[in-house]
Amino acid sequence: MRLPAHASIAQATESLSALLKEAGIAEHHSDARRLVCAAFGITHIDMVLRPDRKGGPEELANLEAFAKRRLLREPVTRILGTRGFWSLELTVRPHVLDPRPDTEVVVEACLDALGARTGDRISILDLGTGSGAIIAALLSECPLARGIAVDLSSEAAAAARHNLAALALSDRAIVLQQSWFDPLPGPFDLVVSNPPYINTGEIGDLDPEVCEFDPVLALDGGFDGLDAYRAIAERIRSWLSHDGILVLEIGATQAGAVKTIFENVGARFLGLRQDYAGHDRAMVWAL
Ligand SMILES: C[S@@+](CC[C@H](N)C(=O)[O-])C[C@H]1O[C@@H](n2cnc3c(N)ncnc32)[C@H](O)[C@@H]1O
Question: 11 alpha carbon to ligand 1 midpoint, in Å?
């Protein structure tokens, strides 16, 4: 990227935004703003109030380095290493799924389904915890709850442990590095999962930000995207207490197929929730 020497905040933002736009990056303006703020060590407020402030050589070098990475389609959250999720700030690590805003709908569905029980000493199982986003958000909202978070990936388990500790939640959560095919303690009042749900054959067609930076283990749901739902359905009776709740994130076109899988094991459908774009995203079940 060619930035004029001593470019101002406004000039740097404009140049980077134009470059990202040319590279076909849809969110070019907001990405440029976030990267300039990080490179210059300023807030959005500084950016608005002092657009003419010149960048020093170190700040412009930081920005060049960020721009190179973004042009290789690395997501801004991975470049910066953090992501706001729910009311929390999470560390985003390589080889661990970058938690998505859509998954906040899963947290909302859990809290709504729990109702007044959010204040009780409930137990939560988070299957495929990744960065720990869901369990951390739930524990932050349910002050007496305790949870077990499970992930097959050692990088994910380490990331979840790190995030829970950083948020002072680790005394109420245990992270297990294992598969949901391995035995788990139980039963739980709430079982929640955002499992891998992309068809194997479609992973290569996803945006480079996803298929080149999120781990395959977090995306690949098998030939029809439904392997994890079948695995969870087979085991749900041993994990869920008699009055427990199951909440699942699903792909936008999967509601019908996932409904059939869980109805076949006798689960009771409680509801379906859409994400902010209006796509089916979270399903709520009981036994
Ligand atoms: C879509 S990601 C969700 C991550 C996180 N819950 C979130 O919402 O950001 C799915 C997670 O499931 C994990 N996973 C895949 N297969 C698994 C298995 N058999 N047992 C346990 N975890 C698994 C992946 O490593 C990944 O972290």
Answer: 41
Tell me the pLDDT tens digit for each residue of 207-257. Answer: 999 999 999 999 999 999 999 999 999 999 999 999 999 999 999 999 999
The alpha-helical segments, DSSP class H, found in the chain are 9-22, 28-40, 44-49, 57-71, 76-80, 104-114, 133-141, 154-166, 208-211, 216-219, 227-239, 255-263
**pLDDT tens digits for range 56-103:** 889 999 999 999 999 999 999 999 999 999 999 999 999 999 999 999
Separation of 142 CA from ligand 1 center, angstroms? Answer: 22
Q: Is 195 in the pocket of ligand 1 (CB under 6 A)?
A: yes
Distance between CA 96 and CA 250 in Å, rounded?
Answer: 19
Backbone angles phi, psi at 259, to 5 degrees: -60, -45
Residue 128: phi and psi, rounded to 5, are 75, 60
DSSP annotation of 277: T
**Ligand 1 and 196: CB distance under 6 A:** yes
Query: What pTM, to 2 d.p., does this model score?
Result: 0.94
Q: Which residue, among 225, 235, 187, 188, has the nearest Cα to 205 in the 3D structure?
A: 225
pLDDT tier at 185 (50, 70, 90 boundaries)?
confident
Q: Determine the pLDDT at residue 87.
A: 95
> Please, are residues 177 and 151 in contact by the beta-carbon 8 Å criterion?
yes
Per-residue pLDDT averaged across 174-199, rounded? 95
**Rounded CA separation 130/98 (Å):** 8
Calculate ∠ Cα 235-238-241, nearest 5°: 125
